[in-house]
Amino acid sequence: MSNKIQSIRGMNDLLPEESDLWQAAEQVLRSTLNGYGYQEIRMPIVEKTELFKRSIGEVTDIVEKEMYTFEDRNGDSLTLRPEGTAGCVRAVIENGLLRGPAQRLWYTGPMFRHERPQRGRYRQFHQMGVEVFGLEGPDVDAELIAISARIWKLLGIKEVTLQLNSLGSAQSRARYRTVLVNYFKQHLQQLDEDSLRRLEGNPLRILDSKNPDMALLIAQAPTLDESLDDADRDHFEQLKRMLDQMDIAYEINPRLVRGLDYYGRTVFEWVTELLGAQGTICAGGRYDGLVEQVGGKATRAVGFAMGIERLVELIREHSSFEFKASPDAYLVLAGEAAAVSGLKIAEQLRSAVPQLKLLSNLGGGGFKAQFKRADRCGARFALVVGDDELEQEVVTVKDLTGELEQQTLSIDGVAQLLASYNGKRSL
Ligand code: HAM
Asked: Does residue 381 share a domain with residue 235?
């Protein structure tokens, strides 16, 4: 049969050879966040289209060009989530989570954007996101940055830099908007079609343009820092002082505006040059006005999200992060009697050794073939059970690295040996 059905462009399978690294990386993210007292929240993948329009902004690339929007059978307009913040805000409002103390939350899962696929940019991609609700000061901004910095360290990622900017309060941005519109109006003939449209609707977005013909015009545009008020400046200065204290280096980038409209005050991105054009592995900032905009009571908020595909590529290609995913042992079952008793022995070992990674030979096969399988799966030990072993209630243990002599041990003895090696596995 020809006519094979293929996957959708920009939406990839995660194959077993990759999933070990994904799991190890996700485990580091999860345990780090849990260690800071953040809790997981899981939101639906589909939300009402209106939610994204209202939060990300109507005049943004995501909402104008990239959303997977469809009508369901009731005629409601729904959208596959292009990011997690909007859904998280909806969820905390709807479930009354903003009534009590501050919420420190994280989530992970697939996001969908109809962008042009290339290295590091996919139409289905995965984020680990963090959102904090109900805290106003720069200390939480600093903690979020510290969390991401710790994650890089734990994953052995070195060549990333932190870019930082302040977009100011809503009032400061309104002042800046006027300054910016005046500037661009003086250079109308240099604006492309997108920018002309954005001039009235969302002039800050023009700064985000990737059009090389406009690069100079944008580079010479007035920057937002001149429009910041005292409270904005104070917030930003304090944040910088906290980062200095923690020895977290940053670059101030006055052009950093982010591609989503909900930000105000702190914004940041972690970027690397090692991944080509798509070098931002983590990005976020404050969005103090969004909860109210989505219909909740005014609540300060800040967060970030990491792109897991980019993170995993960086780890795979450029980090010393070590994780061992191969099995501790492979159980070789020689002969019919062993094939019958083998599963029981495997269960005994699993009960005795927590976290044991043991592959039991399935589907029969000769002695040689089974050893080949043991080698191929990367197991440290081959545990051999044949008629003799069954009779004497022992197991022959062969170290496939050749480091230890072959030995014959009782089931308890094997369990002890495996327990002492299994502690060295990081998964
Ligand atoms: P974002 O900058 O749109 O922010 O995305 C965050 C990260 O997701 C990016 O830095 C990148 O690593 C990854 N990413 C985005 N698009 C793609 C893609 N097409 N393919 C692969 N990776 C991608 C947000 O989504 C905000 N919700 C972050 C946030 C949370 N701000 C506050 N809280």
From this structure: no
Write the residue with the smallest CA distance to atom 22 of ligand 1: 307
With a 6 A CB cut-off, is 84 part of the ligand 1 pocket? yes
Q: Is 9 domain-assigned?
A: no
299 Cβ inside 6 Å of ligand 1? no
Ligand 1: residue whose CA is nearest its atom 8: 307
Domain that holds residue 26: 16-169+229-318
247 shares a domain with 150: yes
CATH code for the domain in which residue 100 is found:
3.30.930.10
Find the 306 Cα to ligand 1 centroid distance in Å: 6
Check pocket membership of 103 for ligand 1, CB cut-off 6 A.
no
Task: Determine whether the shortest distance from the Cβ of 283 to ligand 1 is under 6 A.
Answer: yes
> How do residues 360-402 score in pLDDT, each as one tens digit?
999 999 999 999 999 999 999 999 999 999 999 999 999 999 9
Rounded to the nearest angstrom, the distance between the alpha carbon of 46 and the centre of ligand 1 is 17
Beta-bridge partner residues of 361: none
The mean pLDDT value of the chain amounts to 94
* 188 secondary structure, DSSP code: G
Give distance in angstroms: CA of 307 to centre of ligand 1.
6
Residue listed under structure tokens 């004497």: 392
Whole-angstrom distance, CA of residue 111 vs CA of residue 302: 19
Two tokens, residue 184:
């661009």
Report the alpha-carbon distance of residue 69 to residue 46 in Å, rounded.
10
Give residue 427's pLDDT.
39
Alpha carbons 158 and 161: distance in angstroms, whole number:
9
Here the CATH number for the domain that contains residue 401 is: 3.40.50.800
